What we know:
- It is built from four helices and no strands.
- By secondary structure, the chain is mainly alpha-helical.
- The chain has one domain (15-167).
- The chain is flat.
- It starts with 15 loop residues before the first helix and ends with a helix.
Amino acid sequence: MDGQPDPDxxxxxxxxxxxxxxxxxxxxxxxxxxxxxxxxxxxxxxxLPFQQRFTALDDSLRTVYLVAVVLxxxxxxxxxxxxxSHRLLFRKHQKTxxxxxxxxxxxxxxxxxxxxxxxxxxxxxxxxxxxxxAFVAGGxxxxxxxxxxxxxxxxxxxxxxxxxxxxx
Length: 168
């Protein structure tokens, strides 16, 4: 793009092990952010049934709440799974497989986190403003997440590919 060498290209002069270690470290940093967010969201969800106004939820909002709890639990499992895998594979000479598997788990975990946030937002809007507001708010944040988490990175990748094609 700006003439700088590709940091993941041959210019790094790193071994496969060094690359796997670097990729693992980068993935762990990303997971730390994700884990904190999902833990806070899960904690919020787990306290709701103990609030006085929880009994005011109708059956459909209770169902939405339970879906949110299940999604948050699965999200937690997915974003913590790489750490558990690391413990099981530690010193087993499987770092590359660990990084590849953990990358997939992290991506799936992010997708579940996004859906969890959408459902929680719909729950809150549904309780405060009703079903229509729940669908509108949930749909709007879903569009924002898809744009920010999927479309923007794909556009960046397309631009980088186009740019590298022009340099050749």
